[in-house]
Amino acid sequence: MKKIFALILLIPSMCFAQIELDWSEQLIVNENTELGYTRPKVVFTANNIPVVMWSRQTNKEVYVSRWDGSSFGTPVKVTPEGLNVFAQDWAAPDMAAYGNKVVVAFAAVPETSGLIYTVTSLDGGLTFSDTVRVSNNPVTRFPAVTVSPDLSVSVAFMEFEPDYLEPHYAVATSSDGLQPYTSSVKATGPAPGEACDCCPANIITNGDKHVLFFRNNDNDLRDIWASVSTDNGQTFATVKEIDTTNWMIGACPSSGPSGMLNDDSLFYTWMSGASGNTRVMIGAASSADLSIGQHYMITPDIASNVSQNFPIIAGYRKNTGVVWEENQSGVSTVKLAVSDAGVLNLPKDSIYLVSTNSNSFAKNPHVAFSNGVYHITWQDIRSQSIYYRNATIKNFVGINEVLKAENQIGVFPNPSDGIIHLDNLTNRNSIKVFNLTGQLVHERQIHFEKTISIDLSALPKGTYILEVIGVDFSEKQIIMKN
C-alpha cells in the first residue's frame, strides 16, 4: 500500500502558554507638528521594511516615512499642492502594500466636489506617482485599499445616491494602480437598511478573492457584515452579517471592522458596545459562504470603567495579533494580543502594553505582520507625535506544526477505488479536491458533518490533493486512486 502523506497548513490549538516576544525600543516616526500626526498606518515592503503613513488634520496633507535601517527617514508628502484630503481622528487615508508596491488612497475635500484618488510607489515607499482618480462620483468618503499578489489594486469607498441617500460601499479596480480604475461596482448588495454612513470599512485580498468588511445600519442595528468577490472585485455575490452581538445604537460609533484572509477562512475584529461597554471582539467565518464560526470578547474580565476602540488585526496563518486603543481613567494606551495557535485562541496572558510612555495619550494604533514580526504604529495626542515599535516572536518558525494525530481527519481507504470516506470532520465546513496541476476536480459543502463519503470514481487513476476547510483553519492531505 502506498504511504499517506499529510501537510497541515493551518490548525487550531488549545495551547495557552504565553507568547514570548522580543520588543524593540519605542521609536519616533515623526515629531514635527508642522507635518501632523493623525491616524497613522503601517505596512511592510520587500525585505520586511516598515513604511508608516499619516495625515495632517489642519492642512489636510498626507505623509509617508520609510525605515532606513537605523531610523525613519524624512517624511515624503504624497498629496499634490492644492489638493486637500479628508483626515480626522476616526477616519483618514488608507495604505496597502505588496512587495515594493505601496499604494495610498484618500478622499479629497470638500466632500460635495472632491473625489477618491490613489498614489503609488514602486520603490517601497521612497517616491510616489501622481494621483490617479478612482471614481467620478462627487459624493464619496472612506477609501480603503488593497494590493493583490498580481500587483493589481482595488479601492473600496462609500458612495451615495443623490441628496446623500442610500449610503453603500463600492469597489473599483486598477491593473496596477497607475492605470485607470474600472467603473465601481456596488459591494454591499442586499444588506438590509444601509451601510453605516460614518463608519470606515476594510478590504483585503489574496488574489481573485476580495473581502469587504463594513458596519451596516439596519434601523440602528449596527453590526459587522462582510461581502465576498471571487472574480477580482468585479462582482460581490455573497453578502452576510458576520456579527451576532446585535448592537443597537442610535448614534454613530465611527468605528469599523478589520479583517485578514487565510486560505478560505476569515478572521476579523471590531468594537461592539452591545455588552454596555465598548469592547474589542474577535471572530472567524468561512470566506466561501460567510458561515460564522466562534466569536468572543478578547478581554471579558476587565473593569467597567475601561473602554476599548479601533482594533486592527494582522497575521499569517496561525500567528495572529490584534492591537487596540484602551482608555482607563483618562489615560489612553495601546494594547496587543497575540496567539501562535489561531485567532480563536488569543490567550489572556499574551496581552501586552505597547505604548510605554507614562505621560502619553496613545490612540489609533495600527499593525502589520511579516516574517514573525508585528510592526505597530500609533499617534500620541499629548506630544503630537507618531510612534513605532515592533515585536518579534521568539523562536519563530514559518512552517506550521504538524497536527496531533487525535485531531487529524481520517481518510480511508487510501489508495482507493474511488469511494473515499472522511471521518473526524468536526468544525470543518467544506472540502475541495485538486489534481496535481492545481485544477479543482471536486468540491462539496459539508456543513460541519462528522463523517461523509465522496465519490471520485469518475476521475482518472492518479494522485490528488484533498483540502478540508474549517472556519478558522484548513488542512491538506494527499489521496491516491488505484
Coarse structural class: mainly beta
Q: Please give the count of helices.
A: 0
Which percent band covers the strand fraction?
over 45%
Biggest beta sheet attributes: 5 strands, antiparallel
Number of strand elements:
38
**Which percent bin holds the helix content?**
under 10%
Q: Which stretches are low in confidence, meaning pLDDT under 50 for 5 or more residues running? A: 1-16, 399-406
In spatial order, strands of the major sheet run: 1-38-37-34-35
> What oligomeric state do these chains adopt?
single chain
The geometry reads as globular
Give the overall pLDDT as a whole number. 88
Spatial extent as radius of gyration: 23 Å
**Termini, distance in Å?**
10 Å
Topology readout:
Layout lengths: L5 E5 L10 E3 L3 E4 L7 E8 L3 E8 L4 E6 L9 E2 L16 E5 L2 E7 L8 E6 L10 E2 L6 E8 L5 E9 L3 E10 L10 E2 L7 E2 L6 E4 L4 E8 L6 E6 L8 E4 L16 E5 L2 E8 L6 E8 L5 E6 L8 E11 L2 E10 L2 E9 L11 E3 L8 E9 L2 E8 L4 E9 L16 E3 L6 E5 L4 E8 L4 E6 L6 E4 L6 E9 L3 E8 L1
Antiparallel strand pairs: 1-38, 2-31, 3-31, 4-5, 5-6, 6-7, 8-9, 9-10, 10-11, 12-13, 13-14, 14-15, 16-18, 17-18, 18-19, 19-20, 21-22, 22-23, 23-24, 25-26, 26-27, 27-28, 29-30, 30-31, 32-33, 33-36, 34-35, 34-37, 37-38
